[in-house]
Amino acid sequence: MADYRAPLADIDFVLTELCDLEGLSRLEPFAHADPAVVRDLLSEAGRFAAEVVAPTNQPGDQAGCVRHADGTVTTPPGFREAYQAYVDAGWGSVAFDPAHQGGGFPGLVGTSLNELMASANLAWSMAPGLSHGAIHLIEHHGAEAQRERYLPKLVSGEWTGTMNLTEPDAGSDVGAVRTRAVPQPDGTYRITGTKIFISFGEHDLTENIIHLVLARTPGAPPGSKGISCFIVPKHRVNRDGTPGARNDVTCLSIEHKLGIKGSPTCVLAFGEGDGAVGELVGEEHRGMEAMFTMMNQARLAVGLQGLAVAERAYQQALAYAVERRQGRALGAPGGERSPIVEHADVRRMLLTMKASIEAMRRLVYWNAAAIDLSLRHPDPLVREEWAEIAALLTPLSKAWCTDTGIEVASLGIQVHGGVGYIEETGAAQHLRDARITAIYEGTNGIQAIDLVGRKLPVRGGAVVKDHLERIGAVDAELAAAGPELAGVRNELREALAALVEATLWLPTAGPQGALAGATPYLKLFSMVTAGWLMARSALAARARLEHGDGDEAFLRSKVVTARFFCEQLLPAATGLVAAVTAGAEHLFALDPDDLAA
Amino acid sequence: MADYRAPLADIDFVLTELCDLEGLSRLEPFAHADPAVVRDLLSEAGRFAAEVVAPTNQPGDQAGCVRHADGTVTTPPGFREAYQAYVDAGWGSVAFDPAHQGGGFPGLVGTSLNELMASANLAWSMAPGLSHGAIHLIEHHGAEAQRERYLPKLVSGEWTGTMNLTEPDAGSDVGAVRTRAVPQPDGTYRITGTKIFISFGEHDLTENIIHLVLARTPGAPPGSKGISCFIVPKHRVNRDGTPGARNDVTCLSIEHKLGIKGSPTCVLAFGEGDGAVGELVGEEHRGMEAMFTMMNQARLAVGLQGLAVAERAYQQALAYAVERRQGRALGAPGGERSPIVEHADVRRMLLTMKASIEAMRRLVYWNAAAIDLSLRHPDPLVREEWAEIAALLTPLSKAWCTDTGIEVASLGIQVHGGVGYIEETGAAQHLRDARITAIYEGTNGIQAIDLVGRKLPVRGGAVVKDHLERIGAVDAELAAAGPELAGVRNELREALAALVEATLWLPTAGPQGALAGATPYLKLFSMVTAGWLMARSALAARARLEHGDGDEAFLRSKVVTARFFCEQLLPAATGLVAAVTAGAEHLFALDPDDLAA
């Protein structure tokens, strides 16, 4: 596996030119996050990711995790040391509230930092990643005493957190959760039940693990309205804040998975003995709401993983393509074999990877900035507006960036040819690792249903309408930019027209028709939004070029990737409008029996 | 992993309605292959594949192959027994020349049979599959004595064959082969060199292995014009036909791969000692030509693998979707959880899989029929015409069916949700197995270059023109079919227009421009051809329905899948014309250094 190099130049460009980091840093809570400080921070984090974390990626995949007979789990060699160094450096705390020992940087900066860690080692990065979800939940829904007891250690990374939703019979259908929580005279609850697919549910990185567990109290209404959320620490916490008695939580087994093998995916049994002691978070029966408030961040984090793996796969494929010589490229001197990067078809793969990665980064980062503004802007109306935008963008970030991440990782194998299929090369690991991202934190089908069923109807469709108008508004700028961006302008106009057509059609389709078109609609919506961000990227790069502000080759490359994305990748997405507006007829024309024939 | 059930109804439909098996069986060499006999044969083969081969698939993946210190290789448990049963039943010989103890059935029937075996166990099926390539080569280029010595045992399957092209420095660039072949006074050659990625290069299924090896004789011209082809048996063959002395061929190692783990991928050293004894096949320096004559079949066989794995993945996903209950589907009774097959988005995945599989099967089988006609039709002009069609179709079958097979296998994981990511489920194996098919036997990029660079120019473009006219000619039939197929007609017309536009553009693009557009062109070309075959399939099904000839639900399903394919999947492909005709400018706008930025 090739070395990892943090893509700081593009990150900086996106933060500055598309996400208005400057503006964010003028908001009071982020006053210290001026772009220069952020640049230094990310540069340092990039070095840490490359030097400390990235070398653990392939060995971690090869060694995997081991569960021992006593229920303990050993992570791969090197994971503990890298994690300890991460905690020591304070990387986990950068984007959290200073009130809980966080660094107080915007979530946008945390997102950048998380990209670096996830590129370096996706499986490893899930330990801090899951903790972030737990932190957000306790921050927003925990009682003061809970925040004080758990947040400093979670923010510092001394402890990790987990999210316990899934049960064998409750996957996408979270409302089917059966784990029970019985109130006790001392105010705690006794938790009994089995949770599956719990990432880092048991491990050897930290002395304690704080499980957030969805469960049902006695007499709770059925479905998701009867679910409550509990904190169940692996070790109960003493009054002085140190870990105390072992709680009744056992790792029964870990899964043998396609990828992210360095991340232990646990079956956790709560209350095999006397019942696990849990603390209610927030109000009874409001557990799903608590989960939902952190879902934007969690889903965005998974979209970011798609981007992150793609970036790593791309770096490795490019390094190979520059090195490996086969055949003679057109126009190359006779008698000399060319690096395969000189062959047009290999270039197409590489440019598809690169343009897709840049598009993903722009979408995810802009989404992260929207969340920051939704939380921290002083004007509540502006906060509300950005909250709506963030909610609209989140399913796009999650589903499109993971589907695209998988495609990019697969292209990374293809660039390698036969060697890509050999595990030692490391290219195949990226595909295996990426493949989970389309599934967890709500499958991509669930994201599409969320987009069509929950997000489109917000304010009678006004949020979507505003978004489409925002995209349309770039047309005048593209027109003014002249012939270089004429292709971008044309393809974006056509794609936007297709998206508008699809968007107007969906509310007329009836519920089944809308559900039937949800997945192609999400892809179309994402590609148009990404195309628009790429167009803005090209405009910003041209503006900088005109002012002689920045590295010319780098800025020129932003125009090239935007053109490639809009002129060559976007038009195929435009054709998805037919699938969106086809309705449910074909899908349900065959009985399951006939599907088998 | 779910059981496998041979898709005999669709196979029979394709053979009868699209490939004119009836007409083929009227050709003299195939007189005994009337459709009823073929139906019985495939039904029996389907049972064999399901009962004997399919159960070895997942255990074979889990156990993998083992190379021992003495260079021998053990295949997974059950492989030997299944292979012996295959030989005993004579399945390997069905489509070969009766002169060499073959069954004399058309290659089309052999293709159907191979689909069943590859669905049952892709890795295992490579042993007979590679033998087929060796048989074709020796049949067409071997001397009489070589045919007599090797073919009966290869045809029966008592021995297997291998193809030895690749070396560490000669992959896609086969002309770079460095293995040496030095003539000896006795007419044999001494072969020395190292070959990599040799599937079933060493194994325990048979007492002998016949290696076909590309090598360079002393003073041979550089590049592919100096390559000769040799037979290098693992055991030299005694006069009585029994295996004799061990030849100087050693398996140095086997690869640790992403998938097809039951297939040992060997590094073979020829001539570590005195030199391996080889026999020249055909003329010196004509080795590449010999390889090329069998390449249509070999590449078609890999396209078939894409289809075969997709079929298996689909069967497993459908079985899960019918069984697994999550949530309540629209319109389902209250209080009841629905099988996920009732959710529109899951239906979309399943129908995408099913329609893609049917489209692949139609393309590959029609391609196989074209090869039969190109070899066996009595009229040399007709043979020539079909040879051109087969040559045109082959890169489509190979590249599009493998890319699509990978997509279908990935969808199969997605249908399973989290469980799909767990190896025990077996869904992930299909993706891992399928992933190689886009790489070996000429990467899909090489196929696209073959299509654009070699196949389009044939007879001044007349072959392609005829093909496009053939597709256009279905329009009148679709028009006559009325409103049910109006959508199919419209989308096929639009897609064909895009393909015509791209086809006319390519010769004007210059060599680099044509190479730059090759991959999207191949996809567009394949989708239009597949859409046309699906349209013909729907027309044939409607005709049968009108005559009350056949299972009504089955025939209706052919109309549904054709409509889904043409109305929902084809339009996105139409959008690829932009990428085809974009030229090479974007691809080469960035230096490799800037690609990294």
Written account of the structure:
- The first copy, chain A, has about 600 residues and is of the alpha+beta class.
- Chain A folds into four domains: about 10-65 and about 80-155, Acyl-CoA dehydrogenase/oxidase, N-terminal domain (Butyryl-Coa Dehydrogenase, subunit A, domain 1); about 160-285, Butyryl-CoA Dehydrogenase, subunit A, domain 2, CATH 2.40.110; about 295-325 and about 335-440, Butyryl-CoA Dehydrogenase, subunit A, domain 3; about 445-595.
- In chain A, about 55% of the residues lie in helices and about 10% in strands.
- Chain A contains 22 helices and twelve strands.
- In chain A, strands 3, 4, 5, 6, 7, 10, 11 and 12 form an eight-stranded mixed beta sheet that branches. In chain A, strands 1-2 form a two-stranded antiparallel ribbon. Chain A has a two-stranded antiparallel sheet with strand order 8-9.
- In chain A, strand 4 and strand 5 form a beta hairpin.
- In chain A, helix 12 (about 380-415) packs antiparallel against helix 13 (about 425-435).
- The first copy, chain A, is globular and about 80 Å long.
- Chains A and B meet through helix 10, helix 11, helix 12, helix 13 and helix 14 of A and helix 10, helix 11, helix 12, helix 13 and helix 14 of B.
